[in-house]
From TrEMBL:
One of its GO terms (molecular function) is sigma factor activity. It comes from Saccharothrix carnea. Residues 106-157 form the RNA polymerase sigma factor 70 region 4 type domain. This is RNA polymerase sigma-70 factor (ECF subfamily). One of its GO terms (biological process) is DNA-templated transcription initiation.
Amino acid sequence: MVTRAERFEQLRPLLFSIAYRVLGSVGEAEDAVQETWLRYDASPTEPTSTKSFLSAVVTRISIDVLRSARVRREEYVGPWFPEPLLADPYSDPERSAELADSLSMAALLLLERLSPLERAVFVLREVFGFGFGEVAAAVGRSEAACRQLAVRARRHMDAGRPRFEADRRAREELAERFFDAFREGEVDGLRALLAADVRLVGDGGGKAPQWSTHFAGAENVARLLAALVPPFLRIGGLVEPRPVNGEPGAVLRDRDGKVVGTWALDIVDGQVRTIRTVINPDKLGHVGPVADAWAVLRETTRVAAEAHPPRTDQVIRATPGTGVAEVG
C-alpha cells in the first residue's frame, strides 16, 4: 500500500512548480506546498484524484498569497524580479517546451501583469495542460469563466513575447561566448554579442548594490562589464555558468564561495537583449550562503582603481543605503 505521505512526495515537484510560477518566489512556493500537505494530511477522506486535489489546493493557497504579495511588490525598492531558480524539480517530456518557456525571467515578469486568477488559470491550463474542469475546480470559477480568463491571459502573454527567439543550442553557444568575453573584460567582444538597445537591470531590493537605471545600450553595458568583472575575478570572485530560470546565466560567488548574485541572459534573434541580475540577499538564500555584496563591490572597485585610475568618462560610484552602483 502506498501511504498518503508517499503519494504527496511523488507529487511535490509538480506542486512546487505550479506554486513557483504563480508566485515567482521559491520561499513562498515551498510554504504553499507545505501548507498543502498539512491540509491533505488533515483531510478525513481520500480524494478520487490526488493529483487534481493537491493541485487545486496549492493553487488556491498560491492565489491568496499572491494577492497579499502584490501590495509588498508595489512598495518594493527598485525593479522586482522573481527569485532565481537554478533547476525545476518537475519535468514532463510531453510539455517540456511549455515548462521551459514559462520558467524564464521574461515570462514570469509577463505573468506579473495578469490578475491572480488569470495567472493561475494560465499556469494550470497553458503550462501544465490541466483540463478546464480541473482548472475551474482549482480556482473556484465556472468552466466558461475559466475559458475567458485563459483567452485574456494568453492574449497578454503573446503580446509581450518577442517575435523571434533563438533555439536552445544557439542560445547556449552565444552565452558561452558572452561569458568568455565577460571574464576577459573584452569590450569589443562583449559589444558584438549585445543588442544595440540591450538593458542591464538588477534587483537589489534596497539591500544590495543595484545598477543605475540608465544602463542601456551596447557600448554602455560593455564598458561597465569590462570595468567591473576582471577586478572581481582578481579578488577571487568566481563566475559559475549555470542555467537560471531555464535561461543561460551564471552564479557569481566571492572568494569564499558565497553567492553574490545571479545573472540571467535574455537572448533574442542571436543577441543578448536583457541581462537581469538578482543581488537582493533575501532572494538568494536557497542558492547557497550569501555574500556581503557591498563589501565585494568595495574591494572590486578598489582593485579596479589601483589598476586603472578612474578617468573622467569612467567613474564607479557605490553608495550603501541607496542600493545604487553607477558607472558614468
